[in-house]
Design brief:
Layout lengths: L1 H17 L2 H6 L4 H39 L10 E7 L8 H15 L5 E7 L11 E5 L14 E8 L3 H5 L3 E4 L13 E5 H8 L8 E5 L5 E10 L14 E5 L7 E8 L7 H11 L4 E2 L3 E2 H44 L1 H9 L4 H37 L8 H27 L3 H7 L1
Parallel strand pairs: 4-9, 6-8
Antiparallel strand pairs: 1-10, 1-11, 1-12, 2-10, 3-4, 3-7, 5-8, 6-9, 7-8
Helix pairs in contact: 3-8, 3-10, 3-11, 4-7, 8-11, 9-12, 10-11
Length: 432
């Protein structure tokens, strides 16, 4: 900032010191005056183009940060307590043993005071890992009779019956896991909307079969019984990833997260929950019991602060653009005071002067938009590819920014144009 002020202060001073007295007296009517007028016009165009680019980039960052920290989760974590549970491998060596213990947890905690719903899920939405497994649809279910179908990298979630209900994560179609979906029954799966859309396009996913890798490396066929609403695997993700949920009774996980929802009238007795878990098996490691919504809010607090800061900086940038545009146009009008006096002395009306000044400024702003829109679009696409959290630019977003800048430019042009139209011809000629 200091170097900019010094440079733009020294350049006019050095230029004035070099010019001759005769050139100085000729002033605006000389070729030098025309060059300066063109330079000021270039400054107006450059300011509009750069302001549009900066505002577009800032708006996309704000929108991206808002989506990361926004309330559009797709489920309701409010009122849910959660804790991480890790089963020791020596005591629970296989899937059947782990599933049985998880069923005992659900049964035991259901009678704890204040608890209305209990379930388990190995990785929670908006806070789980992003590891994936290759999941492939059977050929007959995607309209193929021969050849192969590329597998989709999907995140695998293992849930007990009622997990979707506890999280208030709705099923778009089909049903939830039930007591009958155990190790002795046919394997079932629930997919999210993104997986269903990528695999079966506009056809129903219910009844289709997917091949899911097992923990031992084998492949197991699962029948799709439901489609769940899209939710993020982790809050830091920008896009929704394909997800496949399988029944805990058919594939028990060693590490899982407890989900406990209260009635809302009386809080869940957290010490009673921990005591019930310890009574089931004191050797099972149970992490801290915390409020799911509060934990998500703490994770995204920094993003919300960043979004607010970027919003304020965007408003400040818009204000600077308005001031700079007004200053350049006002200075140009002041330099042409004598010209306007001559025009009005020769019969020009105030409306003619107003249209002249506003029209010339509007043309410069239009050229700035013509330069700035491609520049802003290219910059936004580059930001989307290189920077985390920036959403893809849309025509509506860029159009809204152009419209906002048009309003600001109209205000910045309107006042100098009105002042020029109010000049007294005799006074303006005497001033020169």
């Amino acid at each position: 900032s200091a170097l900019t002020g010094i440079a733009f202060g020294l350049m006019p001073a050095m230029n004035a010191a070099r010019q001759s007295d005769a050139r100085g007296l000729r002033g605006g009517s000389s070729a030098l005056g025309a060059v300066r007028a063109r330079a000021r016009a270039v400054l107006v165009v450059a300011e509009v183009a750069l302001s549009l680019t900066l505002l577009a980039g800032g708006a996309l960052m704000v929108e991206g940060l808002r989506r990361l920290a926004g309330p559009e989760l797709g489920f309701q974590p409010e009122g849910v307590l959660t804790a991480r549970i890790q089963l020791p491998e020596q005591r629970y060596p296989d899937s059947a043993a782990r599933s049985q213990f998880h069923a005992r947890i659900v049964e035991r905690l259901a009678v704890v005071p204040g608890v209305t719903e209990v379930a388990l899920m190995n990785r929670l939405p908006s806070s789980g890992g992003t590891a994936t497994v290759p999941v492939r649809a059977e050929l007959r279910d995607v309209g193929l009779t021969e050849g192969s179908r590329d597998a989709i990298e999907a995140s695998l979630r293992i849930a007990t019956p009622g997990a979707f209900r506890v999280l208030r994560l709705p099923l778009v179609s089909g049903r939830d896991f039930g007591p009958g979906d155990d190790a002795s029954s046919a394997r079932v799966a629930i997919v999210n909307e993104t997986f269903a859309r990528r695999t079966w396009r506009d056809r129903s996913a219910l009844g289709r079969r997917v091949i899911v890798p097992a923990s031992d490396g084998s492949a197991q066929a699962h029948t799709v019984i439901g489609v769940a609403r899209d939710v993020k695997r982790n809050w830091i993700e920008r896009d929704i990833a394909p997800m496949v949920y399988v029944a805990d009774a058919q594939r028990g996980a060693a590490g899982t997260s407890l989900l406990v929802r209260g009635s809302g009238m009386a809080p869940v007795d957290a010490p009673a929950v921990r005591a019930a878990l310890a009574a089931l098996d004191p050797e099972v490691a149970v992490g801290p019991l915390f409020d799911f919504a509060t934990d998500l809010a703490e994770h995204t607090s920094g993003v919300r602060i960043a979004a607010t800061t970027m919003s304020l900086l965007g408003v400040f940038s818009l204000l600077l653009a308005a001031i700079g545009l007004y200053g350049l146009i006002a200075f140009q009008v002041a330099r042409r005071t004598a010209e306007f006096g001559v025009r009005m002395a020769l019969g020009a009306q105030r409306g003619d002067i107003l249209s002249l000044v506003f029209g010339e400024g509007a043309r410069l702003v239009g050229v700035g938009f013509a330069v700035g829109v491609p520049l802003a679009t290219a910059a936004c696409w580059a930001m989307t590819a290189l920077m985390f959290g920036v959403v893809k630019p849309s025509a509506m977003t860029l159009g809204g920014i152009v419209l906002t800048l048009c309003v600001v430019a109209a205000c910045a042009l309107g006042w100098p144009a009105w002042r020029a139209s109010q000049l007294d011809p005799a006074e303006s000629l005497r001033r020169d």
